[in-house]
Design a protein that fits this description.
The chain is α/β, with parallel strands linked by helices. The protein has 16 helices and eleven strands. Helix 5 packs parallel to helix 6.
Length: 479
Amino acid sequence: MTQMHDLPAHRLAAMVRSRELSPREITEHVLSRTERHDPAYGAYITVIAEKALEQARYAEKRVMSDTPESLPPLLGVPVPIKDLDLLAGVRATYGSRVLADNIAPVDSDTVARLRAAGAVFTGKTNTPEFGSSCYTENAVAPPARNPWNPELSPGGSSGGAAVAVAAGLAPIAHASDGGGSIRIPASVCGLFGLKPTRGRISGAPVKPDLVGLSTSGPLTRHVADAALMLDVMAGNRPGDYYTAPPLPPGETFADHVHREPGRLRIGHYAHTGSAGLPVHPDVLAAHESTLRLLADLGHEVEEIPEPGDAHFGGTFGDDFARIWEAMASATPVPADRESELGELNRRLRERARALPAPDYIAACARLQRGIRSWLAATLPYDAVVTPTLALPPVPVGYFTGDGPEEEFRRMTAFTPFTSVFNVTGQPSVSVPLHHAPDGAPIGSMVTGRMGGEPLLLSLAAQLERARPWADRVPPVWNA
């Protein structure tokens, strides 16, 4: 028997508009599942049940009084917000006990767009402190745990968002990605995750653009739901450093989910160059399976050099680390409370303060030269395919306990493929095509040209049709 959490978000929205389901029924269902299951999985830092039910009642009034054509696209659909974005009137902890009592004065622009689209906000999802790590463990909430196996990490930094969707506690979720933070949890939780093109989604009014590594994006079970969310969240505000070209008038990202991508030329690699980081055999097997599927679908697939040595001169890892350290220092913290930060962020912020400005500028310049070289070299390709991660899901606590230097080394070894596309700004997705022999999910990453979300969504939807994944769910799904 189909349960409400079995339905994709676009179907829920359609059923709300046709009055087959009420926003209150949907919201009560996900809140009930959250109350029952979240204590074991740690998807949320803050649940706002009363506010969510109030929004659902308002949505219900709109359904009964307005015509279906005038209703916004996500009316009555529950959407949790990652606790790195502002949701007015709700605490914004940024995963840090230093900010545990911080209340957001306004909505972020992304949240405002979701609100205008009729979304019902159920709470703020779990994230590591300041989003600085690829796992979701902090000092303000229990660790997030993977719905496929609660001994495993759901990744990060959008780990809570991924848990909510993978466990059936939300149909879709807001997430963000500065070094892989959407694609990492998508890979290890068996979800579809989309990091949009740099400048596609505004960080206004509070979040600085800096060098443009980070962007909001969707975490979903279905490609069509990610396209629907992108249509809602996309847009810019005056003062944004980066803007992506809009779609042609009258077009939507959702339109492209139903279009065939045509025969594409696709480059691929699954190695880490001079970094010499090992890639797990199960990950390599999944990568080869993806390449066979693409070839079977009629695409031209050929191996290309990985970007690190050929285009970034072998310094990518060091230069990215300098930028990451600087980003960790961007969140204001009272000087007398720096000691309360987690060990990783204390170390990152210390290194940032010790970094001479000329060295930071030189790192940025080297990365930009690498971007120019890489984008020119890959222009003939419609997409580039790699593993999302170098390893299958790892246990909760895997990264911590041996000091921040070792923690950063383990994170780098886990995520050698994702961060380069935050640096280049290209749109990039993790597609849940595979599972390891023990059942743990393994994603494949597909990256498009700048501004190429439409073709990327068409290709992802083709893969979804060829090898459907939404019916494969973790044990908690049917609990």
